[in-house]
Amino acid sequence: MYLKILIADDEPEIRRLIFNLIWKDSYHRYLKDCSILEADSSEVAFKLVKSEAPDICVFDLNFSIDDVQSGLNLVERTRRISDAMIIVLTSHESEAFANEALERGADYYIEKNDRAFNERSMLMSVLNNFAKKTLRHRHKNAEEAAPQQYDVKMVLGDYTFRRGISLLVGSNDNIPLSPLEYAFFDAILIHDAHQVDVSVMNATLYEETHSKSPLKNLVSRLRKKIPDGIYIRTVRSQNLQAYFIEGAEFIEEAAP
User: Fold this and answer.
1) How many domains in the chain?
2) How much is the pLDDT for 149?
3) One domain, residues 28 and 129
4) 220 CB-near residues (< 8 Å, 6+ apart)
5) CB under 8 Å, gap of 24 or more: what pairs does 203-212 form?
6) Mean pLDDT per segment of 10 residues, for the chain of length 256 residues?
7) Any domain includes 250
8) Which of 138, 168, 185 is the last residue of a domain?
């Protein structure tokens, strides 16, 4: 069940850079095994939208010098016929048009700069989270057609976290979770107990709740809520800062 990602930019080096980031990526799990399409103009891009039905589109807002309108029109035309996730790339000169792109149907915009195109960049985090959202939607549709046989729960001492329930459910009492706290636990569960990078977690929380609340404050609150013997740990290395929950068990069980 692979994803199709369309990259539309008139600069071949930018297309190749994004292509290589996705193709060689070993960090963002939801971008694995995707199919990548490329277009060097808005017209070619729109033809691919119609013929290939990509799941995620990365559109340059400037397809030629002083021409933002073609990029804006591409966003609007795509949104009319597709529910694909749309990310627009803006140069410094076209950043003022980013809000118009959002009004016309884009889901996110990112400014082109040196930091935008690396493995741990916001672009890669947003792509990963859009991929996750798309795959979740597919799985949900598949479940409706054929009910899922197994669920995964996270056991935290005497409490249990399950997707779709904004509580830590205990045998004697429940601990309520805010939308932001629920999204944090859900991100941990989605990653199957593996550590979740801070940039990925921030992008996930923003996507799920549109909150820019500092992650450090959220983790501090959660550490006070979770039961004794369970710890939210921080992993740090030269190029990585991530979170995982020590003492949690991840159990697969038959779905009701």
Assistant:
1) 2
2) 55
3) yes
4) none
5) 203/122, 203/125, 203/126, 203/128, 203/129, 204/129, 204/132, 205/180, 207/129, 207/130, 207/133, 208/179, 208/183, 209/179, 209/180, 209/183, 211/179, 211/180
6) 86 88 67 84 94 93 74 94 91 74 90 67 79 76 56 86 90 90 86 70 77 79 86 71 82 68
7) yes
8) 138
The pLDDT of residue 76: 95
Burial of 144 (0-12, 13-18, 19+ CB in 10 A): exposed
Geometric angle at alpha carbon 33, from 20 and 201, rounded to 5°: 80
Residue with tokens 């500092």: 214
Same domain, 107 and 153: no
Helices (H), 169-225: 179-190, 198-209, 215-225
* 134 in the same domain as 13: yes
User: CB-side exposure of 219: number of CA atoms within 13 Å?
Assistant: 16
Q: Are residues 109 and 185 in the same domain?
A: no
CA distance 249 to 256: 20
Do both 77 and 129 map to the same domain? yes
Residue 144 placed within a domain: no
Q: What's residue 192's pLDDT?
A: 58
Residues 125 and 222 in one domain: no
